[in-house]
Design brief:
alpha+beta, SH3 type barrels, Fumarylacetoacetate hydrolase, domain 2, 12-stranded mixed β-sheet, 8 helices, 17% helix, 29% strand
Length: 346
């Protein structure tokens, strides 16, 4: 499944699922599989927590299947993309307004809704430094060798879970000069867990999405000089989306260690600036989750970020001299199977 948080024409944000170029309104379509669906909360966190018994990721999958069955022969009108996240979302001809329950629309064309971050306000946000190539590149540019401590286990810093931006959102320009994107991945925790080992950790992943860990290097330099950070240097924004892709859709790209082999790229004003692969992920997500859960309870809706892939910043691409992002720039991050996450700098 590809799950979204969307704002339909009536203006009330809620959870949905993609079906080709359509967004299924899970709340409206719920009566297809649930007898008593009235009054239930259908937001992304409720799906993950499953504390209303019938509202869960499993129920969402049942609803998607029921809608597909209801469409029947008309499902052929939807040109489904061969991979999740391809830009050609097909057509919606003949379906607009044709499917409703009790007068409420059950399907919306994707271009008629506004997508928010899949989790607009996550419970927590940890961003790791888990790609060796990126760590080595930063060390070389700062003329300091990478510490052997980096190889003793992953490390992370918390980011601001209250400053989350979704696809197509405008990110305000911070009060700094060296604004940069950070090309990476994120996973969402799907059930409560504590003290996991690596073999158990993959089982708590609800899905994956693209991560843009924006940063400002002039602020970061001061933090690093004090042996701190990154903190205020990326406190202002993190972008996530465009949708949450469940692990079953990415099995083709996942090895036995839970490592994803995906192609990532970053474009600024349509010009490609970064291209990388996640197949060399030194600390894959199960390792990161096991580390995060040590002596700590993880909760549904917690987000674990991979940090930046090798070459996934302007800092690396320009050897630390810029030019940097400026007002009016459009930044697009694209990842195999996960779609395109686009933002503008205000």
């Amino acid at each position: 499944m590809r799950l979204v948080t969307f704002v339909p024409p009536d203006g009330q944000a809620r959870a949905g699922a993609l079906l080709g170029p359509a967004v299924i309104d899970l709340a409206t379509a719920a009566p297809l599989v649930i007898e008593e669906a009235e009054g239930l909360a259908w937001d992304m966190l409720s799906l993950l927590q499953a504390n209303q018994e019938v509202v869960s990721l499993e129920t969402a999958a049942d609803i998607v299947a029921a809608v597909g069955q209801m469409l029947g022969g008309e499902l052929d009108l939807l040109t489904l993309p061969s991979l999740p996240g391809e830009e050609d979302y097909g057509t919606f001809e003949g379906l607009d307004g044709s499917f409703s329950i009790g007068g409420a629309a059950m399907l919306y064309p994707l271009d008629q809704v506004r997508l928010l971050a899949p989790l607009p306000r996550p419970a927590s946000l940890r961003i790791y430094a888990s790609f060796e190539e990126h760590a080595l590149s930063l060390a070389a540019l700062r003329t300091t060798p990478l510490s052997p401590l980096w190889y003793r286990g992953p490390t992370f810093s918390f980011a601001n879970h209250g400053a989350i931006y979704g696809p197509e959102a405008t990110v305000p320009m911070p009060a700094a000069e060296q604004l940069d994107y950070g090309l990476g991945l994120a996973c969402v925790i799907g059930r409560a867990a504590r003290d996991l080992d690596q073999d158990e950790a993959a089982g708590v992943i609800a899905g994956y999405m693209i991560l843009n860990s924006w940063s400002v290097h002039d602020v970061e330099q001061d933090e690093l000089a004090l042996g701190l950070g990154p903190a205020k240097s990326r406190d202002f924004a993190t972008s996530l989306g465009p949708w949450l892709v469940t692990p079953d859709e990415l099995e083709l790209y996942t090895d036995d260690d839970g490592r994803l082999s995906l192609l990532l790229s970053a474009r600024v004003n349509s010009l490609e600036r970064s291209r990388a692969t996640s197949s060399n992920h030194y600390y894959p997500f199960p390792t990161l989750i096991a580390h995060a859960s040590r002596d700590v309870q993880l909760f549904p809706g917690d987000i674990i970020g991979s940090g930046v892939v090798g070459g996934g910043t302007l800092f690396e691409q320009t050897r630390g001299v810029g030019p940097w992002l400026a007002r009016g720039d459009r930044v697009e991050l694209e990842v195999t199977g996960l779609g395109v996450l686009q933002n503008h700098v205000a």
